[in-house]
Amino acid sequence: MSKGPGLFADIGKKARDLLTRDYNTDHKFSISTNTLSGVALTSTVLEKGVVHAADVSTQYKYRNALFDVKIDTDSNVMTTITITEILPSTKAIASFKVPDYNSSKLEVQYFHDHATVTATAALKQNPLVDLTATLGSPTISFGAEAGYDTTSRSFTKYNFGISVTKPDKCASVILGDKADSIKASYLQHLDESKRSAAVGEVYRKFSTNENHEVLPKSIVTISGEIDTKTLDKYPRFGLSLALKP
């Protein structure tokens, strides 16, 4: 695969994961083992209040194909097949769920030194189709995403994003909900080993005219500046606080 920009889904992902991922107050127990034939087995039991859930997943890699199968206590069987380099610089991901066949989908990803493109379609008669494209480099990238409903022949979504990534920091801005909302995030690692980091996220929806005030009549403004002609230089970020009596 190339060393170009990441996928559109990667824009803002580091900050989003740090804010929301793997924070769990429930009791969870997992056991993993690997066989000599290369099969990985994982058993998980989760206790959430008075509700108990369990699943068994297996993973097997054969040449350029990876097979994932997961079975839970609700008799759901989820299968994911990932094939890399089926064509040069491409990856294909097919997922199926039994008995909910309507959730099955196929995704194809293409990677280039200066661009990435993905196409995802539900495997049913009138599928929803998602397309994404990202241009740039690992340091700075611009991306767009669109969803199309083949039944109603209308766009279900279109989003735009920009991401700037440095070894110790990253920032992103996403214009989403058909250009009706904006989300900006910033992550700063606090040490060289990247074991600690600070992250902030600001979200605003235009149609509802939402304004978040730190204190009554007090407004926080965050601004940024990027010179696309000198990408080797760090971007500038500013913070201002307006207090009204």
From TrEMBL:
Gene3D superfamilies named among the record's database cross-references: Porin
CDD domains: Porin3_VDAC (cd07306)
GO cellular component, one term: mitochondrial outer membrane
Matches recorded under Pfam families: Porin_3
Molecular function GO terms recorded: voltage-gated monoatomic anion channel activity
Top-level taxon of the source organism: Eukaryota
Coiled-coil residue spans: none
Family affiliation: Belongs to the eukaryotic mitochondrial porin (TC 1.B.8.1) family.
Protein name, entry field: Uncharacterized protein
